[in-house]
Amino acid sequence: MKDRRVSDWLLLRKLKVSLSSVHSLNQSGRRLCPRTSIFFLPQPISARPQSSHVVSSCLSQWSYVKFFNIKSVCSASAGRRRASHSNSFGAAMEVNGTANILSSAYLAVEYVDSFLPGNPLQEPLKHAWNHMLQNYSKFQIATWGSLIVHELIYFLFCLPGFIFQFLPFMQKYKIQPDKPETWEKQWKCFKMLLFNHFCIQLPLICGTYYFTEFFSIPYDWASMPRWPFILAQCFGCAVIEDTWHYFLHRALHHRRIYKYIHKVHHDFTAPFGMQAEYAHPAETLILGAGFFIGIMVFCNHMILLWAWVAFRLLETIDVHSGYDIPLNPLHLIPFYAGARFHDFHHMNFVGNYGSTFTWWDRLFNTDSQFMKHYSQHKAVKSD
């Protein structure tokens, strides 16, 4: 069985390589726009006796295969792919080879997806999603739906950290136990959050509908990618956002501008979950821009925008929680920073500039003070 799976993967790779060498032609034989490659096959692959079961399951009922260079959807359950793409980025992607990287990544995810079980919540989710589409317009879904998703998820994820302060047995996991939360600090934070959410972020959310219309991003259930692809796309968005956050966050710590913008976020040297989006309005715009870059690259369905909102809020509230809880499932993410890593940034003010991952801090040695502090902490704890 293992040998057959390996051969299936090799066949998918060979199929991709062989098709990528074919010129893009339309049905009349004229070359298509270079940003999109459409390769016609004489018959569905599933009809070929030499094709493997993985290829046929992924590409059955097809007379052609599309490989898109920037945004694509691979839906194994529907047996088809569809895509939306950006005019300005497409040609550049063809030149620098990023298209090959992305298509290879999607093939890898598709291969893994072929072994995963179906989503048991698929039918209830389908019913709820179709009910939403039937009763609300795209503008209402994109605008008010996105606002509701953001507010519910944000304060829902903040709730455990808020409860922890009243549980004595949880205090052993608090990273800075000598600096407990106070009602005064939390009320101050809550008032700033309301201003940022409704005066800064809401106007940005109002542009969601026009963004989806401009890039022809679908809302329908049939176009929705399966959950492994959503997770992979969220990871890609996190990599892009983390890169943007590291360099812009580090720039905001420059002594000439720190006191004007980023100092607001450092009002609390011992962070707590609700403080994740407590920031100067300018910082909300500057660092928040990294959130939208990944969406512009990967978004191929409205569900991805909401999934990425949920993932990003979960991550940022976790690293600001102030509690280093064992068995945290987010620690399974490779190079994940975590609460202790970012808590040190608030306590020390220097270093640990990454939002989600540790690799940029490790590469530029901006985590050296933290590594020294953490080694001392482990030594004291072991004694």
From TrEMBL:
Cellular component annotations (GO), alphabetically ordered: membrane
GO aspect biological process, one term: lipid biosynthetic process
Keywords: Membrane, Transmembrane, Transmembrane helix
Span of domain Fatty acid hydroxylase: 236-366
GO MF annotation list: iron ion binding; oxidoreductase activity
One Pfam family named in its UniProt record: FA_hydroxylase
Localization: Membrane
PANTHER family: STEROL DESATURASE (PTHR11863)
Protein name: Methylsterol monooxygenase 1-like isoform X1
